[in-house]
């Protein structure tokens, strides 16, 4: 058995962590490397690891991202130190000979219909987005994930000519406490779970 994390660690990752709408500070490239080095170890289906991430930092990249954002997300996203565009690679199975070497898993996926492949890729990339958020929190950053954007515009601006499709945006930085709303309720164990 591993030892349980301390209460302060659990607070930082879950209990007091929040979704921020405004950020300050800078996020260095080294921190982004550290973030990925943590998140990459989270489990995905058959170790497919389909997430592909563009860390948008420069003004030029933000100018390309801006037209894809919904009105409510534009200002906060343009002001965030970093915006992670988390996409999913529809040809994730090409990496399986390396990522899942103990068996020939590529045929499990390569001939599936596109809708089925998209479901597999999006599900595991969404898990990876959650790992990204937890890794950011573990490194002392705050996160603001969102889906309020035009996927087709993001794909054209950042993934044109590739097999990658956008999934989620995550603003990263040091969260401004004035930008958060009161914590919304959560379902109780009995409302969301059962033990059989």
UniProtKB/TrEMBL annotation:
Gene3D superfamilies noted in UniProt: NADH Oxidase (3.40.109.10)
EC number: 1.-.-.-
Entry keyword set: Flavoprotein, FMN, NAD, NADP, Oxidoreductase
Keyword Flavoprotein recorded: yes
Cofactor(s) required for function per UniProt: FMN
Protein name in UniProt: Putative NADH dehydrogenase/NAD(P)H nitroreductase FNZ56_07470
GO MF terms held by the record: oxidoreductase activity
Lineage, top ranks: Bacteria, Pseudomonadati, Pseudomonadota, Gammaproteobacteria, Lysobacterales
Family: Belongs to the nitroreductase family. HadB/RutE subfamily.
Nitroreductase domain sequence ranges: 18-158
